[in-house]
Amino acid sequence: MSVLVYTESENGKFKKTALEVASYAKAVANQLGTTVTAVAVNVADASELGNYGVDKVLNVSNSTLDKFNARSYAAVIKEAAQKEGAKIVVVSQSADSKYLAPVLAVGLEAGYASNVVEAPLNTAPFTVKRTAFTNKAFNITTIDTDVKVVGVSNNSFGLVENSGSASAEDFSPAIPDAGVTVQSVDKATDKVTIADAEIVVSAGRGMKGPENWGMIEELADVLGAATACSKPVSDLGWRPHGEHVGQTGKPVASNLYIAIGISGAIQHLAGINASKVKVVVNTDPEAPFFKAADYGVVGDAFEVVPALIEKLKAFKAANA
Amino acid sequence: MKILVCISHVPDTTSKINFTDGDSKFDTNGVQFVINPNDEFGLTRAMWFKEKQGASVDVVNVGGAETEPTLRKALAIGADSAIRVNTEAKDGFQVAKELAKVAKDGGYDLVIAGRESIDYNGGMVPGMLAELTNANYVTNCISLEVEGVNATAVREIDGGKETVTTSLPLVIGGQKGLVEETDLRIPNMRGIMMARKKPLNVVEATTSGSETTSVKFEKPAPKGAVTLVDAGNLDELVSLLHNEAKVI
Q1: ipTM above 0.90?
Q2: pTM to 2 decimals?
Q3: Does any CB of chain A come closer than 8 Å to the CB of residue B25?
Q4: A256 partner at 20 to 30 Å CA-CA among A141, A196, B44, B96?
């Protein structure tokens, strides 16, 4: 009956979202008066999960799972859910978890609510609050099936520490043929991803050309932030598609979103709305972004950004 | 190759979002509906397969009669025929079940849906459809090539991309990158005239229930006014971000 959570890892270490979904699963388990079981794939030491409310970890160790595959991973989680008799399965909304969740839901004949941003509002009927209309609204939804899959939006619930410890158990589920084979992965390993970043520095057409992105990257570097861009910038080919944030690009739910030279079209604002604090730098005081931002600087990016980099470096040095 | 493109009928990206009937329903008053952008990238890629590889392209939507202009637009862009499953779309699972029936009955080799609709943002239809039809499945797809029964696709992952190989039958969750924005087609007069004569078949739904129920909608709390900081006093901005917002 315990709540099952899939705790995602990369290179044998849990992602931050794994600790967040574990925290969420613990909140649900508290509401239901039950325990939390996590599934971890190819993680050497899963004891960290105990600090976030997990009571038991099912450790899967299998080299065929070294590369992510939606169908195989969904099968692993499904078997774990059935073994534990779990009625609630919690996953993150990383690219991989979003990929596997619908497959898992079909396998468990479960209703699935994605983009959930709060602990359940009610457990009977099981009621969740999720974003819809690309963050322009929330949708209160009940999941009416016996087994339920909940996808928790990244950085919406946060980490909740818990003084506990998790027992470990080896778990060897059947792994079906994947049908999809990963040939190559192209990923910058030294950069923070938009999905995981606490801070995102994003720039738009106000930067005038791709050759001026050096200062944006430097600002991101000082802050330990991911870089992103507006739709026109990606359409013009100044920056890669993967950096495009907004309604048809990636959603951003960072703690701090800094927009440089982005006017704030409605579809851009929708995509970044879930970010907690927004800062805008723009020459045009009438730019719509100022209505959506918490802090604003009216000024030329080519002067403000280098100056801000110096101020932040001084701040970091003083607070190091 | 027989291709089925799933078309979601959604409010234009610039629409004001309001609700009616005690905040239980989306207010369609004055809203322009369009082909879901993620689906339109897939439809445009399907047209490429039609023109270069002789594929046939059908489009399908699950919804009431009010969605037919959106299907007609897909026909005007170049799809051969359209299917409308005549029922209100209640949730992703229900829509996926209806689409699975259409996909199986039609014997499609490749089904292209959007990675998510821009209204409900469920992001679940392509994955559920693949599982229900026992097809291979790639979502967040930014490139797709098909040769015979073999397919090569590129999937966007967090912080990068990965290239995968797979085979038909295949379900794709498409997005920008499958084609570029500049590749999208605006229907011309000839296309619009031809679309009127193309078949639009209405089929009845086979499933009745849904797994989830939308209870109501809420709008985010209104935002407070922006705090403006002078461009010559960025120390203040750093201080506000540290002491007030506590984000650095």
Answers
A1: yes
A2: 0.94
A3: no
A4: A141
Instruction: Give CA separation, B47 vs B5, B165, B229, in Å.
Output: 10, 22, 50
CA distances from A166 to A152, A169, A185, B190 (A): 22, 10, 33, 66
| Residue A190 confidence (pLDDT) above 80 | no
Contact B116, A102 (CB under 8 A): no
pLDDT at A142: 98
Map out the domains of chain B as residue ranges. 2-217
What's at A27, amino acid-wise? A
Evaluate whether A32 touches A59 at the Cβ level (below 8 Å): no
The contacts of residue A45 (CB under 8 Å, 6+ apart) are: none
Q: What is the pLDDT of residue A320?
A: 78
Query: Within an 8 Å CB–CB cutoff, is residue A248 touching chain B?
Result: yes
Q: Is B220 on the interface with A (CB under 8 A)?
A: yes
Of the listed ranges A109-123, A192-206, B104-118, B133-147, the one predicted with least confidence: A192-206
Residue type at position B121: N
Q: How does B103-140 read in b/e, with b if 16+ C-beta sit within 10 Å?
A: beeeebbbbbbbbbbbbbbbbbbbbbbbbbbebbbbbb
- Output the average pLDDT for chain B: 96
Other Cβ atoms less than 10 A from the Cβ of A278: the count is 25
Do A247 and A271 meet the contact criterion of CB atoms below 8 Å apart? yes
A173 CB-near residues (< 8 Å, 6+ apart)? A60, A75, A76, A79, A80
CA distance B21 to B3: 39
- Chain B residues in contact with A137 by the CB 8 A cut-off are 17, 19, 217-220
The DSSP secondary-structure symbol of A76 reads H
Q: What is the pLDDT of residues A75-100, one digit of tens each?
A: 999 999 999 999 999 999 999 999 99
Interface check A114 vs B, CB under 8 A: yes
pLDDT of residue A178: 87
Residue located via tokens 């969605």: B67
Query: What domains lie within chain A, and their CATH numbers?
Result: 3-170 (3.40.50.620), 199-319 (3.40.50.1220)
- Chain B hits for A103, CB-CB cut-off 8 Å, are 127-128, 130-131, 137
- Could you read off the pLDDT of A205-249 as tens digits, one per residue? 999 999 999 999 999 999 999 999 999 999 999 999 889 999 888
